[in-house]
Amino acid sequence: MTDQPLKWRTVVVTRAPDQQGSLVSRLAVLGATVVELPATVVVDRPEGMAVLTARLAEGASPFAWLVVTSPNGATRLARALAGRAVRPARIAAVGPGTADALAAAGLPCDLVPPEAVAESLVAAFPPPPAEGASGEVLVVKAEAARPVLVEGLSGKGWTVTPVVAYAAESAPFDATVAASLAGADAVLFAAGSAVRAVVGAYGVVGLPPVVVCMGPVTAEVAREVGLVVTAVADPHTLDGLVAATAAALAP
Fold it and tell me: Which CATH class is domain 10-39+171-248?
């Protein structure tokens, strides 16, 4: 097989502007022409950030675990912890991409589940401690996040404090982007919010014929809005997404 399996192929990347670089470079190495379509813009939720910062600024943290569901959450947790010499609790991440973002901020993870989905993290999460120790978990989450993680940890006996620290807002329609979409070979989605934003702005028929999703949750959203999913990354990482794209577009 050629070392540039995506040569002559045009691939649309739908991640937020501050998260596209690594994926774009991986695709370019394989020869792809990349169209960057920031489907969403990630913004802080000031009230949630204020709560997060205040709770983590307490002298003795009540939390046994801090749980982060995305690189966006990792960025905001790091900001809230800025200036603290010691981590206030153990840290769990939903997937390796989130764990990498935490590690880059000086916050190595204590738990990363085998699959990058909330269900896997719930299954891998330990039971709450015996009486007398902290059984509280703080979850840094997006506004539109699924309730699976909070409900699952609560069901295992943990006292869960969810904090909505950020939200993904849809980017506006762009006629130039619409033309590029129509002529592309594949579109890549790494989050359900991106799926909904792109389909909402450009419609199902305006998208390329090949749809590749980062994981099963994103693929489920894509199917719900009427897309036919060609491939799902396995593992649910950027490398997995690129490999799934190359396989889907193979001659």
Answer: alpha beta
DSSP tag of 147: S
3-state secondary structure of 182: helix
What are the residues whose beta carbons fall under 8 Å from the beta carbon of 180, sequence distance 6 or more? 10, 12, 35, 37
The answer to whether the bond into 235 is cis (omega within 30° of 0) is yes
CA 189, 210, 183, 198 dihedral sign is negative
Q: What is the Cα–Cα distance from 244 to 13, expressed in whole angstroms?
A: 14
Please state, in angstroms and rounded to a whole number, the distance separating the CA atoms of residues 158 and 154: 5
Cα gap 232→148, rounded to integer Å: 20
Q: Tell me which residue has tokens 């989905």.
A: 117
Between residues 88 and 7, which one has the greater pLDDT? 7
Q: Say how far apart CA 206 and CA 179 lie, in whole Å.
A: 9
By three-state DSSP, how is residue 202 classified?
Answer: helix
Highest CATH level, class, for 43-167: alpha beta
The mean pLDDT of the chain is 90
Q: What six digits make up the tokens of 67? A: 């749980």
Domain ranges for the chain, please list them: 10-39+171-248, 43-167
Q: Is the pTM of this model over 0.85?
A: no
pLDDT tens, position by position, 2-50: 689 999 999 999 976 656 568 899 999 999 999 988 888 889 999 999 9
Please report the sign of the dihedral spanned by the C-alpha atoms of residue 214, residue 173, residue 142, residue 107.
positive
